[in-house]
Amino acid sequence: MLNISFEGYRNDMIEALKGFIRIESVKSEPGPNMPYGKGIFDALMYVQSVAEKIDLECVNLYGQMGYVDYGYGEKMLGILTHVDVVPAGGGWTVDPFGGIEKDGRVYGRGAVDDKGPAIAALYAIKALKDNCIQLNKKVRLLFGTDEESTWGDMEFYKAHARHPDIAFSPDGEYPVINTEKGAIQLELSASFEPAKNGGMAIVGFESGSRANIVPNKAECVLKADFEDIRKRVEGYECPIGGVFTCEALSTGNVRVSVAGKSAHGSLPENGINAACSLIGFLDTLPLADGGAEDAVRLLAKKIGFKYYGQGLGLEASDFSGRLTVNLGALSVGKGRFAAKIDIRYPVTFPKESVDEKVKENFAGFGIEYTLSLPTHHVPEESPLVSALKQVYEEATGEKAYCIALGGATYARAFPNAVTFGPLFPGQPKVEHGPDEYIEIDSLMKNARLIANAIAKLCEEP
């Protein structure tokens, strides 16, 4: 194991990360050389400036990707990170784009997913260079720009640039994630006429923005009697813990709001889905027939409080875990219905079965697949996994093991790639939630582990 101290880089790493977080790199409308919007472009330019400040040359691949190369060799080791982040969402106690340092942590959207690890990887390479560590492979640190959305950046990179022979992504957890479920994100859409046969009617519904986030807020405007709704809300006990409030509007309608808890969409059981909480409540009301009301009732039946595809006939599990379903966003209003759904399916479960059940359960809706990623598995006995397990054990003194992940990382972009860090066993999974943070000590440990991983995978014979 390398005996490199990172304490001399500590303050620079913290300041670099704080500045990185202050850029709101959420996907937005494209512009010239900004295929995923100005915020993401600014973040890419920022990390490029940090690299150049520490004497590492960074290539900007037409705004699609950035990368730093170090060392030489016929083969290449890739380190796969990304600069884009999901929207902040609600529930924060600090500015999500403030880069706040307190209590030994740096807070902000992207702190652990994936700006902190990107800075750690950058300084790992700097430390190797400063200590003149000899390698037998070229190392390429990639900075992706569309990881949280549709992976258009990775498609572009793979079509136009050299593929790494082996790779790891510091975008999950330790010790080693060698298995990832398949990932599907889809959007349902429909137009509808207002209900005409009386009863309570849905005027509007809004919750969430991304399929891969458990929404922590939802609200619905109902054409209904306020006192009736108030009593129903007070008497309703949400099965998953959503907190309900209601208010009378000047229009004579009633607004029902729900507060939940955000989580990564691949782990819906870790959050409290505000959208599902609210449609579950609406399903108990004497809603009018037809229109949006029927669509909401269908979602309540097919998804509702069922995290594991029970309502869709999609229950499945294997060594990689259970199939999961997340309703990430729902919007109703002005004659339109739209929902965003995230499905993660086990490694041995055929994608065709998911497609079949989606069509069967949501016949009558427009169905658009916005993301479709196949399953990914690298054998535990492979040289890559074996080397990373050894690095982890030498650095921590703890036994290394392999993990199956529901989330999707860039590791699945290449056949011989896995996920290595940044979360250590027992650390909370705060990505995609409010008050996301990275422990500063963990940031430093990650830099050391990444440096040792590079040295191990690229060591001289």
In the CATH hierarchy, the third-tier topology of the largest domain is known as Aminopeptidase
| Uncertain parts | none
Count of DSSP E strands?
Answer: 26
Give the integer mean of the pLDDT values: 95
How many whole angstroms does the radius of gyration measure? 23 Å
Counting helices, strands and paired strands, the structural category is alpha+beta
Shape: elongated
> According to CATH, what is the class of the largest domain?
Alpha Beta
Q: How many distinct helices?
A: 10
State the strand order across the main sheet.
14-15-13-11-19-20-10-21
What portion of the residues fall into strands of 2 or more residues?
Answer: 25-35%
Please give a structural write-up:
- The chain is of the alpha+beta class and 461 residues long.
- It folds into 2 domains: 7-181 and 376-457, Aminopeptidase, CATH 3.40.630; 183-371, Alpha-Beta Plaits (2-Layer Sandwich), CATH 3.30.70.
- Helices cover 28% and strands 28% of the residues.
- It contains 10 helices and 26 strands.
- It has helices at 10-21, 38-53, 111-130, 152-160, 226-234, 274-282, 291-302, 351-361, 383-396, 440-457, and strands at 58-61, 65-70, 76-82, 100-102, 105-107, 138-144, 166-169, 172-173, 176-180, 182-191, 201-207, 213-214, 217-223, 243-248, 254-259, 263-264, 317-318, 321-322, 324-333, 336-345, 366-373, 376-377, 402-405, 417-419, 422-423, 437-439.
- The strands form 7 sheets. The chain has an 8-stranded antiparallel sheet with strand order 14-15-13-11-19-20-10-21.
- The longest helix is centred in the N-terminal third of the chain and has 20 residues, at 111-130.
- It is elongated and about 75 Å long.
- The mean pLDDT is 95.
